[in-house]
Amino acid sequence: MEKNVIVLGLGRFGYAVATKLFEKGIYVTAVDSNYNKIEKIANSVSSAAQGDITEEVAMKSLGINNYDVAIIATGTDIEASIEATLICKDSGVDKVIAKATSQSHARILKKIGADQIVYPELDTGERLARSLAGSNLLELVQFSNDFSLIEIKAHEDWIGKSLIELDFRKTYKMNVVGFERDGQMLMDIDPSTDIRKGDVLVLIGDNENAKALEEKS
């Protein structure tokens, strides 16, 4: 992946992406309008700045045009993700990766120029094919040669256990950044929540660990 990355929006997903890329030696700037989030991440990225990602003037003051990659990590605020994507494309960012929460959201982001979409609702046919093939893995997205995001159906031995009990960071060296339940993508996760049958977990981590988890699925 290119060396200069800006992450816009510091929810659970944005925080995980920004800090993981920084750990890989990539120059990362993290941006959010919430000062507390900036304060929390400041020592875990190259630079952190408070700013409105939907304001072109604010983004230009951060030198948005100097970044090789912009990751639009806000998803629940669809209008904000669209505005941020437009600003990044208009500013000449080479690659814009945007998070979507639904197929319609993903289509809009693609139409306005997003180069890559993460977290869209997966194609029904692809899910069906994978399900019929007996695989729990629904999607694997590689951000770089070192770093992947995967969506995976809950294993039988995970059901009824909480994220605290399962401790994915220790067991699989992967971080849970969200999960889908009953068609809804949940990002603000209570670690004490029990995993249910049919849940789809979204994890992020090294390609090697993602592949290892894929093989177990």
From TrEMBL:
GO terms for molecular function: monoatomic cation transmembrane transporter activity. InterPro entries: NAD(P)-bd_dom_sf, RCK_C, RCK_C_sf, RCK_N, Trk_Ktr_HKT_K-transport. Transmembrane segments: none annotated. GO terms for biological process: potassium ion transport. Residues 2-118 form the RCK N-terminal domain. It holds the Pfam family TrkA_C. Residues 135-217 form the RCK C-terminal domain. This is TrkA-N domain protein. It comes from Anaerococcus prevotii (strain ATCC 9321 / DSM 20548 / JCM 6508 / NCTC 11806 / PC1).
